[in-house]
Write a structure and sequence with these properties.
globular, 229 residues, mainly beta, six-stranded antiparallel β-sheet, 1 helix
Length: 229
């Protein structure tokens, strides 16, 4: 698998700050004047991706379970060499197609075509009980169902200009959803490779939602990113 990650990222703090701003954008919500009339043009059109409707009240499904199912055998088996913790967020920075989430930097699973999403994740080396980082030449990328490979870089997490000396570091990459991308769940995986020859395609612990039909309500989005028109 061909990779093209930078090899000197860790020592370039200034470059890291520039990349951080470009990848994640500001960590605050979009300006309050979005959606207000702007001089010389009509107001921007907002679209609600996740809404709340009134419904009959229900009790807790967890408290009312008659009995817990037995744990499947596969969950009792030894784990492999790698594990992952993943967040997928709506970017607080505009996409290359001119859309921005409001508020931004929000964990979500529903995205319009043309939006920019951010994949932030940690990878753990279970064999050596360490985090996987590029310090030893390890690489990580998010691979989409159509084969598109999004190379990830390892950066501190925080807003541009903040003191990042104690900030958490994660792998991060972004995806600008093409305007003609197929609708429905994006069942991606993460490819990890280490210099000692180990590699793995890690599947997130996510579930796909229902198919997306233009004009029909989306009732179950699932936890994979779901693309809507």
């Amino acid at each position: 698998m061909q990779r093209s990650l930078p090899t000197r990222l860790m020592g370039a703090s200034a470059a890291a700050m520039v990349l951080l701003a470009a990848l994640a954008g500001p960590s605050f919500a979009a300006p309050d004047d979005q959606g207000q009339p702007q001089p010389g043009g009509p107001p921007p059109q907002r679209e609600t991706l996740v809404g709340v409707l009134p419904a009959p009240p229900m009790g807790s499904e967890i408290d009312n379970l008659p009995a817990l199912p037995p744990v499947p055998e596969r969950f009792l088996e030894p784990m492999g060499s790698f594990a992952m913790n993943m967040e997928v967020l709506a970017s607080a920075a505009p996409s290359q197609f001119g859309l921005i989430a409001s508020p931004g930097c929000v964990t979500d699973s529903v995205y319009k075509r043309g939006m920019k999403m951010v994949f932030r994740f940690e990878v753990y080396d279970l064999d050596n009980r360490m985090r996987v980082t590029p310090a030893d030449g390890s690489t990580a990328q998010v691979t989409l169902p159509d084969g598109t490979a999004l190379n990830a870089v390892f950066l501190p997490r925080g807003a541009p200009g903040e003191d990042l000396s104690a900030a958490p570091w994660t792998w991060v990459t972004t995806w600008h959803v093409p305007p003609d991308y197929p609708l429905g769940p994006v069942m991606y995986h993460v490819d990890v490779a280490t210099p000692d020859g180990r590699s793995l395609a890690i599947q997130p612990t996510s579930i796909p939602g229902q198919p997306v039909v233009p004009g029909a309500p989306l009732l179950i989005a699932g936890t994979y990113p779901t693309i809507i028109p």
